[in-house]
Design brief:
Arc Repressor Mutant, subunit A; single chain; three-stranded antiparallel sheet; alpha/beta; 507 residues
Length: 507
C-alpha cells in the first residue's frame, strides 16, 4: 500500500511519530484527529486521510490510542528494527552526527567513519573507529550498511558518492552543500544547512529593515501600503515608451528567455534539477523556485521605495547605483545594529555560497568536457581538478576587479546585460538542437558562438548612434537568433532524423 502513498504523506510521517512520542512521554493515552491536527497545524480530515493510507488505526468517537499509533508509524518508518550506517567525513558535521545520541536511540547504529585527514584516521569518535577512505571498499565488502551519511566538502562529495554507489550503497543522507547527481536506483536525501541559514538571515534582515524604516517614517501597515502605492517609483511596467527598459512587452518576452537560459541551460542551476529523483520532482523544484521569488522580490521593491522616502526625510544624498542604497543605510547604522549584523551575515553567506557553487560548476565542466580527466587515475585526476579550481578562482578574482573598474551600472542591470551577450549563443544552440533536423559542423560552432555576441555589440552601437535606440535585455533574443541562423547556414541535414530517438527519453 505504501507504494501508492504520496511523497507529501511520507514526509509528514516523521512529524506524526515525533508528536506521538512526546504525547506518550507526557502520559497521554488517547488523542483525536482534531487535537493531533492542532499540534501539527493540519486539518482533522488531513490527519485521518494520512493515517488511513496505512490502515485503520483509530475508532470513530474515540480517536487514536497514542502508543499503538506510534508503534504502527514506527513500523512503517522502519524504526522497529536496527539500521546500520557509515559516516563519510570526520569533520565537524560528521562528528556531530556520530555523537548525537538520539540517532542511536532510534536504532541507527554507526559502524565506522572514513576520512582522508591523516590526523583523524585511527582516532575514534566516541566508540566509532575512523578509517582511511582507501579502506572503505574493503570494509564495505565485509560490513555492508543500510545507509551512508555523506558529510564532506562540496568539491569531493560527488566523487565520494560515485564510490559509494560502486561499493553497493543505495541510500545516502547527504550533508554536503551541493546537489549530487546519482543513478535512479540510488536514494539520496539532501540536507542544505547553509541554504536554510542564508534564507533565515535574508528574511530576518529584510523584516528588521522594513520594521526600522516604518518606525523611522512613523507609518503603520496601511500607511506603508499607501506610501508605496502612491510613490512614482512603484510603477513597474511601462506600456507607452518603447525606448524604456521597463517596457512591458520587452521585459515580458526577454524575461521568458532569460529564465530559460539562466535556470534551464546553466550548469550551476541544472545540477540542482538533475539531482531530483524524477521529472515530477524537478518540475516541482522549478515551480517552487520561481514562485518563491515573487513575494521576496516584491518586498525588496517595496523596501527600495521606503528607503528613498527615508533618505528624503533625512536629507541623505543617494549613491548613483541603485543597488548601493541598502548597503549605505545598513553600513552607516541608520537602521540599527541588529540590521547591520544580519545584513552582513546574509551578504557574506550568500556571496560565498554562490561563488563556491559557480566555481564548482565551472571546474566540473572544464575538467570533464574540455580537459577530459575521466581517463586519469584517482590521484592524478584529483591533482588536476585542484589545479583547475585554483586557476578558475584566480580568473574569478580578475574578472571581479575588472568588473568593478569598468562597470558604472547597478550590479543587477549589469549582470542581465552581460547575460544577454554570454547566454545568447547557449539559447541559439539549444533552439537549434531542439527544433531542427540538422547536425552542426563542430569545427564552426565555437566561431559562431564568439561571432554572434560581437556582432550584437556592433549592431547595438550602430543602432544607438543612428536612431538613439539602445537595446536592453531583448538583446538576448537577437543574440540567440543570430547564433541559430549561423548554425543553420553551416550545418548538415541528417537523413534519418525522423527515426532517431532521444537517449535520455528512451531510458
Amino acid at each position: 500500500m505504501a507504494g501508492h502513498v504520496s511523497d507529501a504523506v511520507i514526509r509528514r510521517l516523521p512529524g506524526y511519530y515525533r508528536h506521538l512520542r512526546e504525547l506518550e512521554s507526557a502520559g497521554v493515552e488517547q488523542i483525536s484527529s482534531q487535537e493531533l491536527g492542532e499540534r501539527m497545524h493540519l486539518t482533522p480530515s488531513q490527519i485521518r486521510q494520512d493515517i488511513n493510507c496505512f490502515g485503520g488505526f483509530g475508532r470513530q468517537g474515540y480517536g487514536y490510542k497514542v502508543s499503538d499509533l506510534k508503534m504502527h508509524i514506527g513500523e512503517i518508518l522502519g524504526l522497529d528494527r536496527e539500521h546500520t550506517e557509515i559516516i563519510v567525513g570526520a569533520g565537524n558535521i560528521g562528528c556531530a552526527i556520530a555523537k548525537y545520541p538520539t540517532f542511536q536511540r532510534e536504532g541507527f547504529r554507526p559502524l565506522a567513519m572514513f576520512d582522508n585527514d591523516p590526523e583523524k584516521i585511527g582516532v575514534p569518535v566516541g566508540d566509532i573507529p575512523v578509517y582511511s577512505m582507501e579502506e572503505m571498499p574493503n570494509f564495505l565488502k565485509e560490513n555492508m550498511p543500510d545507509i551512508a551519511v555523506l558529510a564532506l566538502p562540496r568539491r569531493v562529495a560527488q566523487e565520494a558518492l560515485d564510490k559509494l554507489y560502486a561499493c553497493g550503497i543505495r541510500a545516502v543522507w547527504n550533508f554536503a552543500p551541493t546537489d549530487l547527481t546519482h543513478p535512479d536506483d540510488m536514494l539520496v536525501v539532501n540536507v542544505h544547512l547553509t541554504d536554510s541559514l542564508q534564507t533565515l538571515c535574508l528574511l530576518l534582515a529584510l523584516g528588521l529593515i522594513l520594521y526600522e524604516v516604518s518606525g523611522q517614517l512613523d507609518l503603520d501597515f496601511p500607511g506603508l501600503v499607501h506610501a508605496i502605492r502612491e510613490n512614482e517609483h512603484s510603477r513597474i511596467f511601462v506600456f507607452d515608451d518603447w525606448h524604456s527598459k521597463q517596457n512591458f512587452f520587452k521585459q515580458f518576452f526577454s524575461g521568458i528567455f532569460i529564465t530559460i537560459v539562466m535556470t534551464g541551460l546553466d550548469q550551476d542551476m541544472m545540477q540542482k534539477n538533475l539531482s531530483c529523483k524524477n521529472l515530477r520532482e524537478a518540475q516541482k523544484n522549478m515551480y517552487c523556485y520561481g514562485i518563491s521569488f515573487v513575494p521576496v522580490n516584491f518586498l525588496f521593491l517595496s523596501l527600495g521605495i521606503l528607503l528613498l522616502l527615508f533618505a528624503s526625510q533625512l536629507n541623505i544624498p543617494l549613491p548613483a547605483a541603485g543597488d548601493e542604497i541598502l548597503p549605505l543605510f545598513a553600513a552607516e547604522g541608520h537602521l540599527g545594529f541588529a540590521v547591520l549584523i544580519f545584513f552582513t551575515i546574509g551578504i557574506i553567506a550568500a556571496a560565498f555560497s554562490s561563488a563556491d557553487s559557480a566555481l564548482t560548476a565551472l571546474t566540473t565542466s572544464f575538467c570533464i568536457d574540455i580537459a577530459g580527466i575521466s581517463h586519469l587515475s584517482g590521484k592524478e585526476a584529483e591533482r588536476r581538478r585542484k589545479l583547475v579550481h585554483f586557476c578558475i578562482s584566480v580568473l574569478f578574482i580578475g574578472f571581479i576587479l575588472l568588473f568593478k573598474a569598468v562597470n558604472n551600472k547597478s550590479v543587477i542591470d549589469a549582470i542581465y546585460t552581460i547575460a544577454s551577450y554570454t547566454y545568447g549563443p547557449l539559447l541559439g544552440l539549444f533552439a537549434f538542437g531542439l527544433f531542427t533536423p540538422m547536425r552542426p559542423r563542430d569545427r564552426f560552432v565555437p566561431y559562431i558562438a564568439i561571432a554572434s555576441p560581437l556582432l550584437c555589440c556592433a549592431i547595438d552601437r550602430l543602432v544607438f548612434t543612428s536612431t538613439g535606440y539602445q537595446f536592453g535585455y531583448e538583446m538576448l533574443m537577437f543574440n540567440g537568433f543570430l547564433t541559430f541562423m549561423g548554425l543553420t547556414c553551416l550545418s548538415i541535414k541528417t537523413k534519418n532524423y525522423g527515426n532517431t530517438q532521444c537517449r535520455i527519453c528512451s531510458k
